[in-house]
Design brief:
The chain is of the alpha+beta class. It has one domain (34-194). Helices cover 34% and strands 18% of the residues. The chain contains four helices and four strands. The protein has a four-stranded antiparallel sheet. A hairpin with a 5-residue loop joins strand 1 (102-111) and strand 2 (117-125). The longest helix has 45 residues, at 19-63. It is elongated.
Length: 222
């Protein structure tokens, strides 16, 4: 019996038929974790890129508002024009539900009567309670203290008789695997475009009959 037991132990020690399976079992959690982490990082990069594209497209679309009004030389922008631009944004960002998890702020940066920069009007969409980093509608309406919108020392400024459509997008990113690999973070992107044609800037936005003003005191995805 003792000899048989010794023989079995010796044979078992020499047996390597399950070695690959054991190595695979030991390494599987490591490679699974690395794969999940890579997926999380890639998805975060994709969402951040899509938010950047959304900001660029909204600024571009807002800069083109009024181009179809060929019967006047200096067009006035209406609230319904802003709603149309926001509708396009909603379609573009539906895949990651931007407006239910973030905020979009569209500002018209212009020059005031003293030659300074000011935010003539501002419209917002989205449920997130966040304000523009540069101030609310009316900021800089008088004087020259307001430097413009953008990074400190590199502010964008509107030239005389024109306007800059400035967009800020904030989004609460939630990880694919919760907070296992990345904590929930707020993504922020901005973009700006100078308006393409002559506009009647004096009156700001024209309030269409029956059109809801998407002012920045409202927090809605619609």
């Amino acid at each position: 019996m003792l000899n048989r037991a010794k023989s079995f132990i010796r044979d078992l020690r020499r047996d390597d038929s399950g070695l690959a399976l054991i190595e695979f079992a030991l390494s599987l959690p490591i490679f699974t974790g690395l794969g999940m982490y890579g997926t999380e990082v890639a998805y975060l990069a994709i969402v951040n890129m899509e938010i950047s594209q959304a900001a660029l497209n909204l600024a571009d679309n807002a800069s083109r508002l009024g181009q179809t009004q060929n019967n006047v030389s200096s067009v006035s922008i209406k609230e319904s024009d802003i709603q149309t631009a926001f509708a396009g944004l909603k379609l573009q960002t539906g895949s990651f539900d931007l407006l239910s998890n973030g905020r979009v702020i569209l500002s018209s940066l212009e020059r005031n009567s003293q030659g300074g920069q000011w935010i003539h009007w501002q419209r917002c969409l989205g449920v997130k309670n966040v304000q523009s980093q540069y101030g609310a509608e009316g900021k800089g309406s008088t004087g020259t203290a307001f430097a413009g919108m953008g990074d400190a020392g590199e502010e964008i400024q509107a030239q005389p008789n024109t306007a800059v459509m400035y967009v800020e997008v904030s989004y609460d990113y939630k990880g694919l695997f919760g907070d296992m690999f990345t904590k929930n973070v707020m993504l922020y992107q901005k973009a700006a475009h100078n308006i393409r044609d002559d506009r009647n800037l004096s009156g700001g936005l024209v309030n269409d009959v029956g059109t809801t003003q998407q002012t920045c005191d409202k927090y809605s995805a619609n």
